[in-house]
Design brief:
Elements lengths: L2 E6 L2 E6 L6 H8 L19 E3 L2 E3 L13 E3 L12 H8 L9 H14 L5 H5 L10 H14 L1
Helix pairs in contact: 2-5, 3-5
Bound molecules: FE2/S2 (inorganic) cluster (2 copies).
InterPro entries: 2Fe-2S-bd, 2Fe-2S-bd_dom_sf, 2Fe-2S_ferredoxin-like_sf, 2Fe-2S_ferredoxin-type, Beta-grasp_dom_sf, Diverse_Oxidoreductases
GO molecular function, one term: metal ion binding
Protein name: Isoquinoline 1-oxidoreductase, alpha subunit
Length: about 150
């Protein structure tokens, strides 16, 4: 089995796995990072949203072989030590989560949006495709605006 080497949340990782193993399985099952959730496995629900080389991606749709030498950040690596990322803090301040299942992916999508768009419009926020079955979209919008003001 080939060995793939990449960086996850600031730490080098080496994983032996079949080339076509979805990265989400490696993150959750091999590395114990259960923040990225499994919902659909086909890039539709976005519950697994994380960052690849600083941009949002869905690790259920990317094979481990495509990650060699790359940098991955999951929700577990978003905070700076004990200091929450402004998006995480805003999520707490706005009490966004209901069941919580979709929220790691929502936060990672919001953090990626704010990297490229400092002050997103309602339309840009609404263009986030992450699904929330509990319907927390209004509070997500408020939290993104709060984080934007704080950053
Ligand atoms: S699990 Fe649904 S997009 Fe990855
Ligand atoms: S908070 Fe329950 S699915 Fe979003």
């Amino acid at each position: 089995m080939p060995t793939y080497r990449f960086n996850v949340n600031g730490k080098p990782v080496a994983v032996d796995a079949p080339a076509d193993t979805p990265l989400l399985w490696v993150l959750r099952e091999r590395l114990g990072l259960t923040g990225p959730k499994y919902g659909c496995g086909v890039g539709a629900c976005r519950a697994c949203t994380s960052h690849l080389d600083g941009k949002e991606f869905q690790p259920c749709t990317v094979a481990v072989s495509e990650c060699n030498g790359r940098k991955i950040t999951t929700i577990e690596g978003l905070a700076d030590g004990d200091e929450l990322h402004p998006v995480q803090q805003a999520w707490l301040d706005e009490d966004v989560a209901q069941c919580g299942f979709c929220q790691p992916g929502q936060i990672m999508a919001a953090a990626a949006l704010l990297k490229t768009t400092k002050t997103p419009t309602d339309a840009e926020i609404d263009a986030i495709e992450n699904v929330c079955r509990c319907g927390t979209y209004c509070r997500i919008r408020d939290a993104i605006k709060r984080a934007s003001a704080a950053m």
